[in-house]
Design a protein that fits this description.
167 residues, alpha+beta, 24% helix, binds zinc ion
């Protein structure tokens, strides 16, 4: 469930507010394209504090488990999404100095940025570039090249014998 204040793009339009709930993945266009359709919503705890028309503080905690396709077997694999975010959205460099310590400054240009975009970016960053099960958990058969290698005599077996014979 989204509230319109989370979708404002210009800092002067931001309002202070809190959100504590779940956000459905289908609502995030880019994210929906990166995860499997069955993914459960991500829990989001969010506080927006508007200090001025030029400085807005964002505190967010995300937690959830998304499903992505393993690039080896194409089966679903779970990726945990846990993170905290402390951002100071600033209209210009001058107001960055007014942000309390511990907040990462983010300059917002004339295009603006919505809180929902920030959350989506953060979740996307938590996803692996190439998702793969750990080898032991992956149902895909071992790659053919590895099998062939295991079935043939290793090239150094003869060398070991040779070294042993010298002693
Ligand atoms: Zn796999």
């Amino acid at each position: 469930m989204f509230s319109t204040w989370m979708e404002q793009r210009n800092l002067p339009d931001f309002v202070s507010g809190e959100f504590d709930g779940e956000l459905a993945i289908s609502r995030f266009e880019r994210l929906a394209a990166s995860v499997l359709p069955g993914s459960t919503p991500v829990a989001v705890k969010l506080t927006v504090e508007k200090r001025s028309d030029k400085l807005v503080l964002i505190d967010a905690t995300l937690s959830g488990r998304l499903e992505v396709a393993c690039q080896r077997c194409l089966e679903a694999m779970e990726v945990p999404v846990d993170g905290t975010l402390r951002l100071a959205l600033a209209a210009n460099d001058d107001v960055v100095a007014d942000a309390p310590s511990g907040y990462e400054p983010l300059l917002v240009d004339s295009g603006g940025i919505a809180v929902t975009d920030i959350i989506e970016d953060e979740i996307l960053l938590a996803l692996p570039l190439v998702a793969r099960h750990a080898e032991a958990d992956c149902p895909a058969p071992v790659a053919t090249s590895q099998k062939v290698f295991a079935d043939t005599t290793t090239p150094f077996a003869g060398l070991a014998d040779m070294l042993r014979d010298r002693h």
